[in-house]
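The freezer alarm interrupted the setup, so I double-checked each line after restarting. Inputs confirmed:
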Amino acid sequence: MRLVLVGTSHHHAPVELRERVALEKDAARKLASRLAEGDREAVCLSTCNRTEVYLAAEDGDAAERDAVAALAELEPAVEPALYRLRDQAAALHLFRVAAGLDSLVPGEGEILGQVRVAHELGTTGAVLDRVFRQALHAGRKVRAQTAIGESPASVSSAAAALAAQVFGELDGRRVLLLGAGEVGEQAARSLSQRGAEIVLVANSKTGRDEIEAALGSVDVVVAATSAPELVLGAATVERALGSRRGRQLLLIDLAVPRDLDPSIHQLDGCYLYDIDDLETIVADTLSGRRREAERAEAIVATEAAKFHEWHASLDVIPAIASLRARAEEIREAELRKADALLGRLDESQRRAVESITAQIVNKLLHLPTVRMKQAAAAADGVLYAEAVRHLFGLGEDEGR
Amino acid sequence: MAELLFWPALLLYGEAAVGYLGDARRPGVAGRAATWGVRLGWLAQTALLAVQAARRDGFPWGTWAGSLNLFVWLVVSAYLIWGCRTSYRLLGLTVMPLAAVLLVVARAGGGTGVGGARHYSNLFLVLHVGLVLVAFAGFTLAAGLSGLYLWQERRLKQRAATVLFQRVPALATLDALALRTVAWSLPALTLGIVVGAVRLVHDGDSLDALVVATLVTWLVWAAYLALRWAGGWAGRRAAYLALAGFVLVIVVRLALPASHFA
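Predicted 3D structure, all chains:
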């Protein structure tokens, strides 16, 4: 069985092209089902960054042609942007995808779930089932053993991660949002996704008393107004600290020009981060992710090698099974011929003869079996399998 | 036998201290090795204490050095409650070197061997020494949590770009855990002092330097709780106060041993 991959991603196609070959879950399932004709297997992985078709088929060339045709049917212009990979290269690519190493932001975690869903929606058999399971395992291993996916990759997620660094779980934490623009909304959404509660969205009409009152009870302040001057001074925050009983206050200033007085950061228990601070964190995070990616690549390569070993053994296993069956057949036939002589043996002697002949067969076949598996891993498996079939006349009886 | 168990415990605690240092520089294998060092070292020290208990007639940790040995075990036991979690590995960096050094001091004072007995009853020693040491172990852990709080708080104040890359518990979590640990430890110290005071009055003895220092320690930790609950203290100020309380614990444990244990 050949493993075939045909697809395109953000590395090869702009979004205008990718969006035309992007498939909803149901469409991906139907495409996989259509391509999995006969004994073929097919999985379609479609995300905002990639659309890829994985096939396992005896005839790799035909499978590749069908996959290219299916994707070109969605959008003819995509054909030049398609990459085509086979066997080990295809498996390694999938493992890298599952680990987030091929993502726009290295280590992003969403892709692992998307690979799992694609696997579930696909028409799989022994090969694709194995390669997808192993890819998911590799993805999980990378996330568990490296820090590649631990830090935020955008300003809004950095704000949420900072809040978690100060407060731990954000369930029930209260957020004051100054300004109702898109930037602040994104940060507020990141905080809400972690369980925080937006208690007040203040705009130019909101009274200062209301804001000051909220400062006494909130845990996070996100400021993103378009005001030309400071919206919140250090004196106002200092007044509110009295009623906070030492509780920490995180202030995120996403506005340019800034909304929050920088000297707020000097107040006890107050942590003020502006847009530059957050962008520095994100930049460092991305470089940290790239450093971790080197470790992740090593994990992925090891897992891909394991799959390759298994996949390659598929070429020789039928030949090994036939060889063993032929040897057993000969052993039993010879024992039957000698039956007249062996008939005079008692039961224990007969068992001893059975055991000795079985051991001879096993010992004779052990080394060829090992060597064939090794050859399979080194890509000579098919040649070896053919040679063994020819030398021992395997399969010739059926042909006669 | 006790000698045979002391060395593995010390080596494993030392390995844990070094491992946590490595984990602080590059999180991963070193941290996992350190956590196993703590676990196995704790098992070795537990076995050491068991051998001491089996071989000695009476409470084996009534001496200054013996109580230090037990104190180390209690500190590591308390640390093990959280220390296995990845985010608390840096706490090990403050606790494990201290544990290793104090274990060496305990051995130098003869606290890891067997033999000898105290003239006090076992019940008194278990209650008095046991409760005071449990409290001191709790205070040590609270101080470790407070130290970690101050370190992480400083990084947040400095707006360190790597502030999210180090696995450290959240500030609020560290603050709350330190408070909770002290809230459990202070009653134990109070009971331990009361038991000791009853014995003191019964024997007609007078206060010695260690008793006075222990009472001052109690006052500091009581003030810590009072200020946190009633005075609205939290965060940095509370953490500094916890470290001050810990200095007194160290003074009581190390600097004033002689007269009280004579």
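Quick read of the result. Chain B has a mean pLDDT of 85.
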